Give the backbone structure.
Amino acid sequence: MNLSRRLEKVRGTESTAPAAEAELQNAFMSATGTLEPATLGRIHEAKSAEIAEVVELTPTAAVASGALSALKERASQALYERLGARITDSSLEEAELHQYVKDELKIVVDEEQVPLTSTERQRLIREIIDDVLGHGPIQRFLDDPSISEVMVNRFDQVYVERAGKLTLTDTKFASDDALRRVIERIVSKVGRRIDESSPLVDARLADGSRVNAIIPPLAVNGPALTIRKFGGDALTVQKLIGFGSLSPEMAELLQACVLARMNIIVSGGTGTGKTTLLNALSSFIPASDRIVTIEDAVELQLQQDHVVRLESRPANIEGKGEVAIRDLVRNSLRMRPDRIVVGEVRGGECLDMLQAMNTGHDGSLSTVHANSPRDAIARLETLVLMAGMDLPLRAVREQVASAVNLIVHISRLRDGTRRVTHITEVQGMEGEIVTLQDAFVFDYSAGVDASGRFLGKPIPTGVRPRFTDRFIELGIHVSPHIFGADQIRGR
């Protein structure tokens, strides 16, 4: 066996450090036929660090994983006691706090007097710092760009969403208390609190990720935490086309609708990508327009310069100081907006938004939770009624029909992909009914491939929307073939 293979054997050994060094000596003797003391010294110096790192041994034997976990618990507790109130000291910079914690942690680990390899020591310090300053064992998921959502059902059950699919991980928190500490750290950074008197919190991390936390007595199985990660890079229309979420023909029609100042509602279920699509549509707004965005938690990443971003505020501990989305929508009307973009309508603000659309603020955009374009209309009607105004249903429907021009519906399919399944024109009222006409629908008839991915794509219905006459008046050109009329006649 040559020297390199003998060294590979050393890397795979589970023996003690002296045995590993003996194996290295034997490997050298086999290759050279001799072993001088000076040569052995050089080998030892050059390879001692490698042997310790490769074999991951203490001077006597490797520390068992159970002993390492116990050491981590003791060290974490001792560190909390040493830090005291400094861990929540807002006057400390983040980098300064990290360095302070790291220095204190080294002292704590040294006081334990447990022999550790350099690899074990680094791993221990990293995990404790994640627990104390980060998000504990789920920190690695938050750092992973391929993961879009982290769901902690209880301290020993963590799911993640990757590529639209949910996966159970083997990651666990040490206890309910460890999970509770992470939750409290998250909410304290945004000036909120969570306890038995206020057992649920919606918050936003510094990077824009949305957080929901709920604890007992409302959460029966222990604290639960859901983090929807904020994408660092905004998804453009071209990227959505590349992913198959949109077709080029759809993108051309939507661009023309935004330029023509159509009022557009993006509908879809939870986690379907409504905000992502809304963000992509906003890229079509001309740079000369003044845009006011209104959101519960800031997520939109508009590329234009002339943008005013507003964010609602929850009530404080005394139940005062709340600023709702509805208040911000009303205030935005006095800010001379060319476009109003509401991240999501979910209450009485829907009435104010529809009134804005009907009183000269054309080109506004928003999203709503719904399972289809028809359901989106019904949802808007319900939200208007939540405003507390005693309006007849017909008057509400007339408001919706005259304000909204287009509904873009996005769905998350069984294969985990997000697809725009409908682009639907709101044509007006016929009797008591709001009439809709699909311009594009998703074709499910193509079936799925061997991996379960849908082969279908959005196809035009062959019906030209009425609002295209407005494109002609404004000089906005749209290719006639995008509506598929030629294809329909050719069948």
Remarks:
- The two ends are 73 Å apart (CA to CA).
- The first strand starts at residue 147 and ends at 154.
